[in-house]
Amino acid sequence: MNYRHVFHAGNFADVIKHLALVAVILHLKRKEKPFCVIDTHAGAGCYDLEGTDAARTGEAADGIGRLKSLHSGLDVPEALRVYLDCVKREGEGRYPGSARVAAGLLRPQDRLIAIEKQPNVAKELHNSLKQFANVRVVEADGYERLFALLPPHERRGVVLIDPPFEAENEFTQVADIVSRAYRRFATGIYLVWYPIKSRAEAGALYGEMGTRGISRILRVEIDVGRAPDAGKARLSAAGLMIVNPPYGFEDDMRNAAGVLEPL
Known about the structure:
Number of helices: 9
Structural class: alpha/beta
Number of strands: 9
Strand content: 15-25%
Low-confidence stretches: 227-232
Strand order of the largest sheet: 5-4-1-6-7-9-8
Largest sheet: 7 strands, mixed
Oligomer: single chain
Shape: globular
Distance between the termini: 29 Å
Mean pLDDT: 86
Order of helices and strands: HEEHHEHEHEHEHEHEEH
């Protein structure tokens, strides 16, 4: 596997993915009962947007870079305000990965299990999260380890599945993983990220999950188009499938999208 998220950290897809994660966690925190966050492809935890690797693609400039002027005041939807605060706490030129975003929002009774397969990246992840309580970093294949963690003893929580989609059959694999996880933890919330390089593939993923008995699925997609000089390789559209979306989640995302429309 040669995927390195640092090249894409803070891009438009990260913005939408992490905003959705924040919105779900805020929903879970409305009740005092504890919850568990499971991140199957956690990455390094935090990224240097001013480093050589991130600068090579410059993708963050069209993602979080465009949001720096937003003020996290009362006129900004709550989920977007909290997300921006998570980013700003990292300092100039730094961007938090999904596990670090989640870790910063946990209460004492909540916990996070962050899984990362690549040993060197898992080490970075551990160092990035060691300051947080109730966080466990697991060096393993996220697909394989997930089932041993379900259902969590809290019986409440969210599973973020954010693979690199390098394998040719990854869409089929994701549908299988989610359906198997759903059978173990049917009340859980699942956030499934996917790139849109083919509308047919994205539609097939949605249809496949539906045929496997998952009825409550919300699709959130964003297409930023492609600048004339961006080249064919640069991703310009991505989406999320949210299984068991919490009440009000769609409205939260719609309100935030009104502010994010320039993306």
